[in-house]
Amino acid sequence: MEIKSDNDTKDTKNLHSATPARANLPTEERQKVTILTLQKQKKMKQKTVLVTAYDYPQALLADKAGVDVIIVGDSIGMTTYGYKTTLPVSMEEMIPQCKAVWRATKHAFVIGDMPFMSYQESNQQAIHNAGRFIKDGACDAVKVEGAVIDRIKAIVDAGIVVMSHLGLTPQTRTKLGGYRVQGKTKEQAEIILNQALKLQEAGCSFLLLEAMPRESAGFIAGQLHIPVYGIGAGDQVDGQLVIMHDLIGMFFEFKSKFVKRYCEAGKIIQDALIEYTHEVRTGRFPTSEHFYEINDEELEKLLGDHRWKYTIIEEKEKKIKAVS
Question: Which of 210, 264, 289, 314 is flagged as catalytic?
């Protein structure tokens, strides 16, 4: 349930003004975000902004807004393909969407999310599919769920930048007992910290923590020299990720506690479609301002052809009546 307070308007303004310098820079002044940019942001304690995008218009808007990192997430299964979970998503469904995002993106760092069973079988499979995200999908890096140290090391050794994902890992949610908050005890937090340190040692460049208390996530972020981002992991991490559809009100199944809706795009679109439907059915759209014109000479030619004559005369009579 979304809880609103009197400060919501003020908070929204503050959050929107947190990155105005980057968002308002002329395009030619903004630089492409790289791994060095993201490392520097952690060092300078500058929060990194991450969001998902799954197609050209979404990525275009995110990039123009000044977002640092776009993740083409396997969450596309639920937001776009209508699956109940992320598990059915395939490489064939991910790569075209990565290409679309790349075409729209001039500045943001793009990460492709490796879907379930695209890396689990072997190091060779992991390297091959990670390579497809880079070569075919034009991503800057890949994201791999879980503390799969050998797989991640193999991908890194192949020269590919990797983000790992700990805490609540949706691809293995069954092992976790469902969508449950992780790191709520000292023992759980230490397990995740140890996994994170091993991933860092294996060559991971970034880490994403999902659904964790801010204290646990913040402590882990402080122990690692690589950037540690959060999705529902509090404000003590190095940056925030939110699913685009959650952020703009385009996911309708449920709303997680950590999500803040910045607009209700779904309702705006639905209202527009309702109005469009009504105007078409009542003859209020299209009107003359939406018509293409034909010059008089060509019109006379059409009138000289009996196949067109009566239709065109009827239309002219309609126009005369409308004017009068």
Answer: 210
- Asked if 187 is an active-site residue, the reply is no
d(CA 56, CA 189): 38
110-142 in b/e burial notation, b at 16+ Cβ within 10 A? Answer: bbbbbbbebbbeebeebbebbbbbbeebbbbbb
Query: Which H or E element spans position 231?
Result: strand 228-231
Which residues are within 8 A (CB) of 234 and not within 5 positions of it... i.e. 6 or more apart?
212, 213, 214, 215, 217, 218
| Residue reference for tokens 């190095």 | 238
pTM for the structure as a whole = 0.85
With residue 68 as reference, give the H or E element that holds it.
none
Residue 130's alpha-carbon distances to 112, 120, 155, 209, 306, in angstroms, are: 9, 12, 7, 21, 64
Q: Identify whether the C-beta of residue 70 lies closer than 8 Å to the C-beta of residue 109.
A: yes
CA distances from 206 to 24, 117, 163 (A): 27, 21, 5
Taking the domain 8-260, which CATH number applies?
A: 3.20.20.60
**Helix (H), strand (E) at residue 11:** helix 8-16
Structural domain boundaries in the chain:
8-260, 271-323
Q: What is the pLDDT of residues 62-100, one digit of tens each?
A: 999 999 999 999 999 999 999 999 999 999 999 999 999
Are 240 and 219 spatial neighbours (Cβ–Cβ below 8 Å)?
no
Calculated CA dihedral for residues 68, 71, 72, 73, nearest 10 degrees = -160
Closest CA to 91 of 124, 122, 125: 125
